[in-house]
Amino acid sequence: METEDTRAIFTAVFAGSIVLANVLAAKLTWIELPGLGGVAVPAGFVAFGVAYLASDLLVEYHGKEYAATVVNGTVVTLVIAYALVFLAIWMPSAPFYGGQDAFVSTLGGSASIILASVVALAFAQHLDVRLFANLKTRTGGRHRWLRNCGSTAVSQGVDTIVFITLGFAIFPALGLGGEPTWGWALASIVAGQYIVKLLVALIDTLPFYVVTEFVKQPV
């Protein structure tokens, strides 16, 4: 497969995974961590891992400028997706439709969570793009595992801290929905979710190597 053939594929996978991850985040799943016990994480964590893999591949083959443009476009796409969801919630239900309450509870997230997810996405993904490009330059294109794991591990940590802090503490304290969570409870949520995301970042090194072996680098 030629490099240019991957542009649309990686872009679509990134944008689609981000939007889907935010939809799947409506469900909390339980992950057992050996020696650490269980932790509740949004079910979209795998989709987020796919998105980070796609963004790294975008930088690898198409450069940080194009990848940054894709991130900006995806942020806009996510905002539009949320707007369309709330439009669907606002639309009157058919007289025989009995699933409105379930529809609202599943897709109608609080303002604090929605705003936090958009802010965290914009900040962390741009950081990931810059870190990946910087590591690739500093290593002269060698050590693919380092730029893949390193950029994702750092940016996933930033994403987790920004999202949890804004969505569960600061925005609720400002009256944007929900009760604020502080202190150890907040820190434990951040730590638990980051550990799971870090494991996903390590696992996605394998598909990164597979793709970079299969797709030709530009000459």
UniProtKB/TrEMBL annotation:
**Membrane topology value:** Multi-pass membrane protein
Q: Where are the transmembrane segments?
A: 35-54, 66-90, 102-124, 145-170, 182-203
Q: Which UniProt keywords apply?
A: Cell membrane, Membrane, Transmembrane, Transmembrane helix, Transport
Q: Which Pfam families match?
A: Vut_1 (PF02592)
Task: Give the UniProt subcellular location, in the record's own words.
Answer: Cell membrane
Show the GO cellular component annotation of the record.
plasma membrane
Q: A GO molecular function for this record?
A: transmembrane transporter activity
Q: Which domain of life is it from?
A: Archaea
Primary subcellular site in the record, as a coarse category: membrane
**Which InterPro entries does the entry link to?**
YhhQ (IPR003744)
- Functional summary from the UniProt entry: Involved in the import of queuosine (Q) precursors, required for Q precursor salvage.
Its family? Answer: Belongs to the vitamin uptake transporter (VUT/ECF) (TC 2.A.88) family. Q precursor transporter subfamily.
Which NCBIfam families does the entry link to?
queuosine precursor transporter
The name on file for this protein is: Probable queuosine precursor transporter
Q: Which organism is it from?
A: Halorubrum ruber
